[in-house]
């Protein structure tokens, strides 16, 4: 087994993980990043453009905060919103990467080429002395006798799946959200293992009902785009039209999703798509005679929604000692409320939360007394042999998450049906999944997808209203009684509880649902 020791161990090498690493290294900590793929070259950010809110102090910032609070259905917090914008603006002011603002559009949003952005972040982390271990998926957290997280274990994909173990003074989960292998550009690495590992150690989750964010992608046959083209498929489409050629009203992409959910075809103009992508789509028959392309709904899950690990304060600590979180792996309901993270907010959150988590993890590693004892946290999908095919579990999860009728338009009946099916599969995932090498990695991934789907289902069933991206066909309106946030957790038995929020988010008051 390959073993090492460090001050701060970061699971995940996307934007949030890299900002975390730079922040922790600046605080004097020894930092290691482990990534299941290649840090800075995988994940949804590398596909197309990425946007970040970058607003100087003044009236524009105050207006942006008011607008975000309203779009979030009143579930966000003004202080959190203000702190995110302030931290992001401060960090970007000294960031050396290339950036530009479009001459038209929102001047408060910074647009970056996603691939160039994460490559520059990776380079900056390496220059800061961070050690990056690519193709090192983590499988379990390590805890000491007090339950403090003190490291992680996993395998080396490029080295015959040999095990590795890293002891650390603090661990940061920056593994991103979960898109349930929907096929959305770059999300094949976002399968929820970070959330599962944290929950197995006792962490709580927040806002899991806001896991129903959808995007749009071109309708393709069985032709898979090459990597150079696939990058462009993450680009936002232009004007959307119905079958009659009438422009769809409303906000992007809500109008299109409603039409698709009703069984209609929706088409997009490709005026915001690179020429290479338009040419490739034309060669493969995806473009109509008028130059438009049919689009489909693709679930982006908790990546664009606000669901993830619950945080206890601005230091981005989770409810487990020694464990921190950043970026899409965190619950962002205190920032996004019930909205999705479009308009640059998810990008800004990656910068701010990564900076806060890195500094806090470095401080914790300095004062935390480290012992010699550490044990892996037991978990699902870790048996020595597999008695069921993980593809069956993945297929069941996708059946109950990907279709619009399951996640876009929910009801008590459909949610109860999904929960019953998913719950019945959990014992099998817990005790019958496993194996060695690549088989164990796939088993762990299947167990994580199932766990995330169950948390999302239970939370969505509990919130009996429509608010933001959470839609209930049996409760089509927002209710003042539900201007609360939800926390959830549990593995064998999932629990959900309300959190009544006031001005102070760091000390929530909880009541049973």
UniProtKB/TrEMBL annotation:
Pfam families found in the cross-reference section: FAD_binding_2 (PF00890), Succ_DH_flav_C (PF02910)
InterPro entries assigned to the protein according to its UniProt record, in alphabetical order: FAD-dep_OxRdtase_2_FAD-bd, FAD/NAD-bd_sf, Fum_R/Succ_DH_flav-like_C_sf, Fum_Rdtase/Succ_DH_flav-like_C, NadB
Domain FAD-dependent oxidoreductase 2 FAD-binding: 7-249
Cofactor(s) required for function per UniProt: FAD
Domain Fumarate reductase/succinate dehydrogenase flavoprotein-like C-terminal span(s) in chain numbering: 439-478
Catalysed conversion reaction: L-aspartate + O2 = iminosuccinate + H2O2
Example GO BP: 'de novo' NAD+ biosynthetic process from L-aspartate
Keyword Zinc: no
Gene Ontology molecular-function annotations: L-aspartate oxidase activity
UniProtKB keywords: FAD, Flavoprotein, Oxidoreductase
Protein purpose: Catalyzes the oxidation of L-aspartate to iminoaspartate, the first step in the de novo biosynthesis of NAD(+).
Stated name of the protein: L-aspartate oxidase
Species the sequence originates in: Nocardia camponoti
